[in-house]
Amino acid sequence: MKIAFHNFLTTLRRYKTSSLLNIVGLTMAFTAFYVILVQVRWEMTFNRAIPDAGRIYLVAPLSPFDETEYSINSPRPEGEQLIAQSPEIVAGGCIRPWHWEQPVWVRRGGDLLRLQGSFNEVSAGFVETMGLQALEGELKALKQPNSVALARSQAERLGLRVGDVLWFGDEENRRPEVQKEVVAVYEDFPANSTFADVVGLQDVGDQDLDAPNNWNDCYFVRLRAGADPEVLARRWEQIHAENYRAYMERMAPIWGEELTEEEMNDPRACTLIPLDELYFDRRVADSMGAFSSGSTTLTYSLLSVAVLVILIALINFVNFFFALVPVRLRSVNILKVFGAPNASLRFSFLFEAFGFMLLAQLCAWYVAIALKGTEFASYVSSSLALGDNLPVLGISLGVSLVAALVAGSFPAWYITSFNPAMAAKGSFVGSAAGRRFRVALLGVQFVISIGLIIFSISSLLQQRYVRRYDLGFNHERVLTFRTASQRISSADRFAAFASALEQDPQIVGVTAGQGPLVAGNFSIWGRKVADEEVMIHVRPVRSNFLDVLGIPVLAGEDFKPGYDRDTTLHYIVNDLLARKGAGLGCRLDDGNVVGICPDFHFRPLQYPVAPFAFVTIPGDMEYFFVRMAAGADSDAVCDHIRRTVERLDPDCEPVEIRFMDEEINAQYARERRITTIVGLFTVLAVVIALMGVFGIVLFETQHRRREVAIRKVMGATSQEVLRLFNRRYVLLVTVCFLLAAPVGYWVVDRWLGAFAYRVPIRWWIFAAAFAVVLLVTVATVTFCSWRTANENPADCVKSE
Q1: 3-state secondary structure labels for all residues of 282-334
Q2: Are 484 and 462 found together in one domain?
Q3: What is the pLDDT at residue 187?
Q4: How far apart are CA 710 and CA 713, in angstroms?
Q5: CA of residue 117 relative to chain centroid, distance
Q6: Pairwise CA distance, residues 607 & 519, whole Å
Q7: Rounded to whole angstroms, how far apart are CA atoms 402 and 678?
Q8: Orientation of helix 669-703 relative to helix 718-752, angle to 10°
Q9: Are 532 and 604 in the same domain?
Q10: 183 and 302 share a domain?
């Protein structure tokens, strides 16, 4: 071991360039591997930190909104009856997955302070199912009237403990009979879980227990070990069929209709989805966008990039080793002549490989620590701190050890396989076969690099495409913010608030709605259109919404100001919904269609255009849109908005204002983060591959110095010598491109398939990938061989 360690240090000193390139390449590869694996682990372990996640299932019936998908929500009677009738269920309960910030009043030294809090309604069975543990108080006390439980993070933010009281809503709600008591504080759900944002709990009570047509509740059940979830899914279907028929029989006399046998039945399928698989399950329709979802394609693409970067670095390691074989073969054979056994020599070379890998691994961990506080860390969902990612460290270390064994075994065996008497006659490394072996390894690097460049350019173009795509309305110079203050958001107060804001000449329009305009699946209403049940995406808005957002009315009329207080609903539908039968004057159950607007994109471009309607209602509108004049000072406008809000409601928390463009771009945040990571590590992969080119060319220029000298004596110019060195690499890059292009096209086409609106795959992307690798390779080869090409032949002969 001591001799092996001494030989390793000798290698570092004697072959400085090769050793440095090896360590730098491996360090970059292991850093990329660690960072990507942190992100992949965050996604692959989603929900798995919840106790017994593999035995907790979401009850997911076929969605009433889209019968090609399953819903996270289901009627409450079916869920409760399923739990009561199933001995296979250890615990089960519901959560109402939507949650929002609302005003919360808390006591501070005798005064009342207004803050913002977030709460979800749950049943006691949900708390038991998820295995929540109280850090303080008793979670069972949630069943008591006017009780709440807080996650540790929210309790600390609000400054509350068990026994403290709080009030929800605005000033008029601060009455003793509506105060809430904190009965428990529980540990936050894991950050990479479906319930990460569930930081406050209330008991759902008896709501909707007798309403089989209300799909408001999300049911989770924890099964006994060995229980078959399919049995419970079939039982839910049977319960639902019975409940639906009983409901229709009860309602038919009230409606005054004679229902057909088909209308009396709803044979709705159901499935149970494990909690630890819910994140990646693409069958689920989350109508409120309440649950985080992932993409196996993106996750495995990231993992593939990590593996490919490691592979490129290992190929470099092997190539650098073989490049040094001629100069190291003499010392090896001298040791063999003096009796050194092959096993000892091979162990020494394997120890060297392990040394390089471990040294690079340590450097990679140091780089990861340095990255933790940089802007780059924001592109990773999880912390990059080593202490937070011990399993990743273990995997990374294991991969480096396996890599050392794999990458070091063949070179160690090969360099010790020569007969000492034959060593002086040449070697495989200097032969044509040796050159072909090294070029083949380099070719693998080029194929990977070209493929990664094609994917990176395509993903960047797609991100640029969705950012610049015409959504069908004017979202430039629009600020958005949210406030739950009833002094501002109510229909009676909106006009005064808008007028106060518009006193600033830089503001040309103010409107409001019940949520963001562009969102996944924000609110969906089922309405009968032309004797067909149609699921309509709805945005409740103020009457001037279309005017402020620049959405034209194609037919009919725009909303009138009086509609904001009218209890009769008024709709403006998109052209698609109008073509389905909801034209002007159509009655949509509780309101009339007064206008038709163009089809525009109210969801991210992963989704196609769907039936849509704006509607005016007299309720509160908490989401505000402020259009600025051209050339307006956005900072001054934001200050004016905050001052106006504070003047009208001194107790209101400062509002968070951002551009609508930022809000829309946030819909693609995950894809943008992953695209950025892939792009950065693609550049890294190309750099590592070029290190391999540098090493091989450096070796070949030294190995072919005599040949170059002879050619120059025979009249060859330096330019001809440079072309000689470059010719092989130009051919190699061309062949590698022909291999990489079809694979790159297939991968990019599959990735873009996730978008309903996608950028076309341009021919120039492939040409650019080819040109980048070719030009950089030629530049590297030229740089490395320039000295040999311009060397005096007499100097070469003397040194030889």
Answers
A1: CCEECCCCCCCCCCHHHHHHHHHHHHHHHHHHHHHHHHHHHHHHHHHHHHHHH
A2: no
A3: 94
A4: 5
A5: 26
A6: 11
A7: 24
A8: 160
A9: yes
A10: no
Q: Which of 543, 529, 516 is nearest to 602 (CA)?
A: 516
Amino acid at 624: F
Q: Do residues 339 and 312 share a domain?
A: yes
Q: Is the pTM of this model over 0.85?
A: no
Residues 256 and 116 in one domain: yes
Distance CA 243, CA 245 (A): 6
The answer to the question of residue 732 being in a domain is yes
Compute the distance between CA of residue 739 and CA of residue 749 in angstroms, rounded to an integer: 17
Task: Give the integer Cα–Cα distance in Å for 240 and 269.
Answer: 9
Cα dist from 23 to 84, 367, 736, whole Å: 63, 13, 26
Dihedral, CA atoms, 319, 322, 326, 332, nearest 10 degrees? 140
Separation in Å, CA 577 to CA 342, 581, 629, 668: 80, 7, 33, 26
Cβ contact 192:42 at 8 Å:
yes
What is the β-pairing status of strands 612-616 and 532-540? parallel
Instruction: Identify which of 273, 182, 188, 199 has the alpha carbon closest to the alpha carbon of residue 236.
Output: 273
**154: in domain:** yes
**Distance between CA atoms of 378 and 374, rounded to whole angstroms?**
8
- The pLDDT of residue 432: 58
Domain stop point among 647, 667, 687: 667
Residues 117 and 256 grouped into a single domain:
yes
What is the domain range of residue 6?
Answer: 1-46+295-429
Shared-domain flag, residues 755 and 652: no
Mean pLDDT split into 10-residue runs, the chain, 800 residues: 65 72 84 89 92 93 78 92 94 86 77 81 94 92 92 92 84 64 94 91 90 88 94 94 87 76 84 93 66 80 83 79 66 68 76 85 90 80 87 89 81 69 48 66 83 86 83 90 77 86 92 85 74 83 92 92 87 92 85 92 83 88 91 92 87 83 79 76 76 68 61 64 78 90 89 80 91 85 69 54
Distance separating alpha carbons of residues 189 and 349, to the nearest angstrom:
49
Q: What share of the chain is helix, strand, coil (3-state, %, to 5)?
A: 55, 15, 30
My answer on whether 735 and 611 are in the same domain is no
Indicate whether 437 belongs to any domain: no
675 backbone dihedrals φ, ψ, rounded to 5°: -60, -40
- Domain assignment present for residue 377? The answer is yes
Q: In total, how many domains does the chain have?
A: 4
Q: Three-state SS for 508?
A: strand
Instruction: Characterize 498-516 residue by residue with b for buried, 16 or more Cβ atoms within 10 angstroms of its Cβ, and e for exposed.
Output: bebbeebebbebbbbbbbb
Supply the Cα-derived Rg of the chain in whole angstroms. Answer: 34
